[in-house]
Amino acid sequence: MSFTVSTPEPATQAAPQAAPAKARGKKVYCQRDDWYFDPRYTDGACPICGWSPPAANLQAAPAWLVRAQQLPWDVIFLILLFVVLVVMGVLVGMAAHYKISPPNGG
Ligand SMILES: [Zn+2]
């Protein structure tokens, strides 16, 4: 009695190459998974198998995005939160007819 067992393809197969003819726009094609993906949103790697396309097929992030990522957004949002809270406090004080007296008395 003989039977055949179908085994999955070995993992040592050749790394899939990006198809430049089929790559449209910023998408990259992974031949192993038959899948188009945008490396900008997947850390430059295929989301299924982790294959990374050659750097030539990767597009650099636009300059405004690089500049925006360098800004300290946590500090900016903290300052923005402080300003919003002060404005809210002033608005609530005005609604309650609370007089904000200057420090030198008035
Ligand atoms: Zn893949």
Describe, in plain words, how this protein is organized in 3D:
This protein has helices spanning 63-70, 73-95, and strands at residues 28-30, 35-37. By secondary structure, it is mainly alpha-helical. It has two domains: 15-58, no CATH class; 71-106, no CATH class. The longest helix has 23 residues, at 73-95. Mean pLDDT is 78; it is low at 19-24. Residues 30, 32-33, 35, 46, 48-49, 51 line the site of zinc ion (ZN).
Short synopsis of the structure:
With 106 residues, this protein is mostly helical. The protein is 29% helix and 6% strand. Bound molecules: zinc ion.
Give the overall shape: elongated
Rg result: 28 Å
User: Which residues sit in consecutive blocks of at least 5 with pLDDT less than 50?
Assistant: 19-24
Strand content of the residues, in percent? 5-15%
Q: How many strands, which pairing sense, and closed or not: the largest β-sheet?
A: 2 strands, antiparallel
Order of helix and strand elements from N to C terminus: EEHH
Number of strands: 2
**pLDDT average, as an integer?**
78
Strand order of the largest sheet: 1-2
Bound molecules: zinc ion
User: Termini distance?
Assistant: 105 Å
Give the total of domains. Answer: 2
Backbone structural class: mainly alpha
Please work out how many helical segments DSSP would assign.
2
Helix content: 25-40%
